[in-house]
Design a protein that fits this description.
The complex is a heterodimer.
Chain A: E1 5-7, E2 10-14, E3 19-24, E4 32-38, E5 45-50, E6 56-59, E7 62-67, E8 72-77, E9 86-94, E10 97-100, E11 104-109
Parallel strand pairs in A: 2-11
Antiparallel strand pairs in A: 1-3, 3-8, 4-5, 4-9, 6-7, 7-8, 9-10, 9-11
Chain B: E1 4-7, E2 10-13, E3 19-25, E4 31-37, E5 44-51, E6 54-57, E7 64-66, E8 76-78, E9 87-94, E10 104-105, E11 109-113
The chains are: A mainly beta, B mainly beta.
Chain lengths: 110, 114
């Protein structure tokens, strides 16, 4: 079973701060890496899917990078807003199976 | 489109009871899956299906049964509930299940086994 780990477990920032989290995975047998955003009392929603080494994806103030050779992905949030408060999940998908990390819980204080 | 729907939203069971968690999607997705979510852990795959009549085990299949008789429905059965199965259960679907495809999640079912 592929192990996916995320750090930190939680993060408290002030409105306007920029922040980043890490997702690490074994670099062998890489297929695809997904980032999801999960708000309290809602369902996880997709942010990005990344497949190629060096991939960079961006959606508004949120961006992500992928390094498959060293087995990590970073998620960046620029100028955090209170509405960014959520749990951010990364997941590796391969062969019809998905392994999720435990998530990074972000709290943005106004 | 309703997307992925799950029923019930919340259920309390006694140890040894059986029940079925329902999941349905109206997006004509071939791939459907069940996850459980426990505190401090990520979503863990229980079972998945790549189409009607085809199911396979995920990471934590013990104590759960599934079947897929139609494209739309993918019920999860607990034959004899145990307290260790207290969790939040999420159903998800994607078009074909390929690695690059996003999964769409249902609202979850919170299960408490006493």
């Amino acid at each position: 079973i592929l192990n996916v780990e995320q750090s930190p477990q939680s993060l408290h920032v002030q409105e306007g701060d920029s922040t980043n989290f890490t997702c690490s995975f074994p670099s062998s047998n890489f297929y695809a890496l997904h980032w999801y955003r999960w708000e309290t009392a809602k369902s996880p929603e997709a942010l990005f899917v990344m497949t190629l080494n060096g991939d960079e994806k961006k959606k508004g103030r949120i961006s992500a990078t992928l390094n498959t050779k060293e087995g990590y992905s970073y998620l960046y949030i620029k100028g955090s807003q209170p509405e960014d408060s959520a749990t951010y999940l990364c997941a590796h998908t391969g062969g019809f199976k998905t392994i999720f990390g435990a998530g990074t819980r972000l709290f943005v204080k106004a | 489109n309703a997307g992925v729907t799950q029923t019930p939203k919340f259920q309390v069971l006694k140890t040894g009871q059986s029940m079925t968690l329902q999941c349905a999607q109206d997006m004509n997705h071939e791939y459907m899956s069940w996850y459980r979510q426990d505190p401090g852990m990520g979503l863990r795959l229980i079972h998945y299906s790549v189409g009607a009549g085809i199911t396979d085990q995920g990471e934590v299949p013990n104590g759960y049964n599934v079947s897929r008789s139609t494209t739309e429905d993918f019920p999860l059965r607990l034959l004899s509930a145990a307290p260790s199965q207290t969790s939040v259960y999420f159903c998800a679907s994607s078009y074909g299940g390929s690695d690059q495809e996003t999964q769409y999640f249902g609202p979850g079912t919170r299960l408490l086994v006493l």
